[in-house]
Amino acid sequence: MATTHYRxxxxxxxxxxxxxxxxxxxxxDIRGDEADPFSKGYVCPKATALxxxxxxxxxxxxxxxxxxxxxxxxxxxxxxxxxxTRLKNIRRAYGKHAIAAYQGNPTAHNLGLLxxxxxxxxxxxxxxxxxxTSLDQLPHMLAALLVFGNQLLMPVPDIDRCDLFIxxxxxxxxxxxxxxxxxxxxxRLKAIRERGGKVIVIDPRRTETADKADRHLFVRPGTDxxxxxxxxxxxxxxxxxxxxxxxxxxxxxLGRLQATGIEELRTAAAKWTPERASTITGVAxxxxxxxAHQLATxxxxxxxxxxxxxxxxFGGLAAWLVYALNALTGHLDEIGGLMFTxxxxxxxxxxxxxxxxxxxxxxxxxxxxxPEFGGELPMSVLAEEIETGGDGQIRALITSxxxxxxxxxxxxxxxxxxxxxxxxxxxxxxMNETTRHAHVILPPTSPLERSHYDVALNAFAVRNVARxxxxxxxxxxxxxxxxxxxxxxxxxxxxxxxxxxxxxxxRALAKLGPEAILDIGLRIGPHKLSLSKLKREVHGVDxxxxxxxxxxxxxxxxxxxxxxxxxxxxxxxxxxxxLGKPTNGLVMIGRRHLRSNNSWMHxxxxxxxGPPRCTLLIHPDDAATYKLVDGNQAKISTKLGSITVPxxxxxxxxxxVVSVPHGWGHxxxxxxxxxxxxxxxxxxxxxxxxxxxxxxxxxSALTGQPVEVAPA
Length: 712
Ligand SMILES: Nc1nc2c(c(=O)[nH]1)N[C@H]1C(S)=C(S)[C@@H](COP(=O)(O)OP(=O)(O)OC[C@H]3O[C@@H](n4cnc5c(=O)[nH]c(N)nc54)[C@H](O)[C@@H]3O)O[C@H]1N2
Ligand SMILES: Nc1nc2c(c(=O)[nH]1)N[C@H]1C(S)=C(S)[C@@H](COP(=O)(O)OP(=O)(O)OC[C@H]3O[C@@H](n4cnc5c(=O)[nH]c(N)nc54)[C@H](O)[C@@H]3O)O[C@H]1N2
Ligand code: SF4
Ligand SMILES: [Mo]
Prior knowledge:
The structure is a single chain. The protein is α/β, with parallel strands linked by helices. 32% of the residues lie in helices and 19% in strands. The protein folds into 4 domains: 2-55, N-terminal domain of TfIIb, CATH 2.20.25.90; 64-136 and 345-544, 3-Layer(aba) Sandwich (Rossmann fold), CATH 3.40.50; 138-343 and 563-572, Dimethylsulfoxide Reductase, domain 2 (3-Layer(aba) Sandwich); 579-711, Barwin-like endoglucanases. The structure holds ligand MGD (2 copies), iron/sulfur cluster (SF4) and molybdenum atom.
């Protein structure tokens, strides 16, 4: 008999409601849950792959132990014992910093990893914590910390109530939105236009999102900070902000908000005239003026910047300026602008408790002196911290829900470094490009076998919503959840065993599980929900539109907006110096595809079928210059080496810019991904230089790196 179960999709930030039909132990259908108040029946093509992940014969179901090049299945007891013994020995011999950990993107969608995973990794006491943050949203978090006082206080665009949506460096029609949890962005953008509003996309590629916009402007990769400074220049110059009104109490009033740093911002922007910015950004001066005027004079408007803005050499500055410009034009914490959420579980007070405190540059990395952020070091230094001998050298690595060999620049070097480790363990369902280097792989249950509540992404949703789903399938005999794996390891290597009652704590934590923590979080949260209440609402609950939250929510000690924090002012000289230089040749950007998800969903036949997606996109004029022919192979080179992929010629690319998506390169020997290896592609991160970073924040520059192309 068929039964239908309602839950949310865990594959991306949109968190759509899905209706999963099951017959026996087989999923026969996955479609959108029409009754979900937020996603209203929308799903993207990836949703059906939830079933593929569950049934994938390549998904590991048993711990694996490697001996040289051969793997064998092992019992949980043996595997956990081996991991803890090895890690303890390494810690005893070399100290706690010798154990490093890397956490990847799916952590954000996994309640077990967000609770017990943090407990394990953040109590290791190591300075060598790494995550996908420094390949992603770090600059937004840094700006949230420096401007609003807390690294988790990242605002989201009020897309459903704005009349102008300027989209900078994001492609939500492919990505389904990021730091903007909003299922079905396409309909939401359409609604803006239907209510007479405008959508403008600024991107080096005329993207799927740009195709649905009123206007698209090309911008040269890596130059957003200059574009934003010039827009701020216009805002001051044309007196488009009320900051020139008499200051109250020494501060300038921006609507309801008190702010400091306005004069510093004015000074910083003074030399960036639209004309000067135009030569660097490729955006016409008249367009820069027009954008600034439109943003400032539209009552409900928002400038939304995402990954294209922050994973570049001036990502720190650009992410700050996005917030500053919205504030200056009266669109911060205002309806239709960049707003702050009121999630059912407030992560702010919880984050500190698990050691995820706000902090920046409190210490530097051992080898090349890169800044710490929130207790983590940037991915750009992981390889060198493994390779470089001496006190504090990394000897062991724990990876959890991450595939850094494909996801971080310098993948080839990183995999050599991984081979040199004394010990590596991966908590991961697949033997892939990264985990094949582990000595032990500990595979968790599938997304359909575990419960779910999106504690992280609900905090960045454009409406306040909450939805809990119990496991759909009873887990396989002897399968372990992520949280159980993490707890088992923590008990043996993390918990201070000398502490009296450590065993009791462990037993209590094992009994609690993530659900109990969730329940407490919901009860003490602003909407006073509970797990039992949510269990009754199988389609999720709508907790209302976003509301202005300042000044109460501001976390700066003086309860003002800090519009010009010193680290940014100090970085402006670098912008001046570097972006003044003449440029020629081609630069690389990435792209996302609706049917792909970073590196790890290419083992689903229905997602990868069709023409190859790991291709070089290039403008027709550039193709002619470099003698590339559509459909033929191109060799793309940097000083790190080269990759060869098919050419796709298209005028959707800006001249001088080429694009190759990341997350491919499934041809590494030793991976067990039967489908993905048939659609291998190449890894663009093999040739992107890890040394190119935003030196302010430490974030890797994934976009805007120079490359050379030639027929292969
Ligand atoms: N050139 C370039 N590089 C990029 C980017 C880019 O735009 N361009 N984007 C960057 C961004 S934004 C990100 S977030 C990173 C992503 O970087 P990573 O997080 O390192 O890589 P993913 O491909 O997301 O790999 C996820 C891993 O988690 C495993 N996994 C999936 N579900 C679970 C689970 O429930 N539990 C556990 N334990 N494991 C699970 C998968 O098998 C896989 O090994 O890549 C970055 N790299
Ligand atoms: N289908 C799918 N969905 C995903 C993912 C996926 O891999 N596949 N990954 C998920 C993850 S981990 C994340 S972080 C989010 C990211 O979500 P988004 O931020 O929407 O990411 P992208 O789709 O890569 O869009 C980034 C855009 O920035 C542009 N860009 C590149 N360089 C620059 C630049 O210098 N300046 C400007 N202004 N634009 C630039 C690119 O052309 C691209 O259109 O997506 C998530 N959703
Ligand atoms: S957009 Fe697609 S992948 Fe993302 S949550 Fe919705 S159905 Fe899942
Ligand atoms: Mo990401």
